[in-house]
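Most newcomers find our protein records easier to grasp once they have seen one. Nothing more is needed to start thinking about how sequence determines fold. Here is such a record, shown just as it appears in the course material:
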Amino acid sequence: MNIHEYQAKALLRTYGAPVSDGRVVLKAEDAKTAAGELDGPLWVVKAQIHAGGRGKGSFKEADAGEKGGVRLAKSVEEAAEEAKKMLGRTLVTHQSGAAGKQVNRIYIEDGSDIERELYLALLVDRQTSRVSFVCSTEGGMDIEEVAAATPEKILSFSVDPATGYQAYHGRRIAFSLGLEGAQVKECVKLMGILYKAFIEKDMEQLEINPLIVMPGGKLKVLDAKVGFDSNAVYRHPDVAELRDETEEDPKELEASKYDLNYIALDGEIGCMVNGAGLAMATMDIIKLYGAEPANFLDVGGGATKEKVTEAFKIITSDPQVKGILVNIFGGIMRCDVIAEGVVAAVKEVGLKVPLVVRLEGTNVEAGKEIINTSGLDVIAADNLSDGAEKIVKAVKG
């Protein structure tokens, strides 16, 4: 689960991290009042979407030469005007995809004097199963570009969970970033704050880009991107309240209500499969036969008729779907349950695209009987390869 920058900064502020004062704006008419509550003389107006690269992004149907999703203003009036220009429009960045994301929230904060920009992140390292620090002197840039061009400028190390964060971790980061004198002590303290927040709130990513050094040597968190382990959000009601469902794919949001593992993709063939491994294999073989999957969907081993019905509805609600492949290997999951769900869903929402069904395993004959006597226009498949070939042929002709 991801949250917005202003929410991340508010959370980090409660732990004692140095962040700028700011106000969130949801309505254009409130922008001037929000900006007026800040001291200036420089205001930073930031579009709030769940995607990076906002400053380099562009709005759809933007005027020639119009600035991106992060803008500077030198007066309250200018800050309010910039906020009004961005609210309600669609911002496209290199992380948002071509469709972009609609800006429903604006964050206006005090500007900061910047002497140096640094990069810092905490994340869960899957290789070591530990929390890792990642830092670089090349703040303000895409870390992927730094890793590709100058990997020696990135320091990464994991923290032993038996000891947790120690002062020497902070000193190692400070020396790597070229900090000196009192900055080292300040860095040690800040890293401890961030590590504590990361662990206590079950975060899976905490990225600060940039972490700035101000004139006089003080450190400040200028931007913050925070993601939480969705499986642990139930332990943090305060974090759950920060969820912005307008930033999530409606189909994925609906799937989560029925405990379905669904991820929307860009292809044209919808997939309903049981088991993550089989779902991946199904997507691969669709690509092998020359088409693209429209989704990853694992209905799980204990799916009911109702869950299968909802899964089918979600697939058919995607306008990109030109055909559907149901691929079920009945182990724990029974083929007749899948068949009943598919028939119920088709009768409720209709079937406007080709449907190929491959069933194998527990109660397979009963499942095939339900499909064959349903009156549905279904293409039967003998195996996965046969099913993929038939659905691609039906879609592409």
Q: What stands out?
A: The radius of gyration is 25 Å.
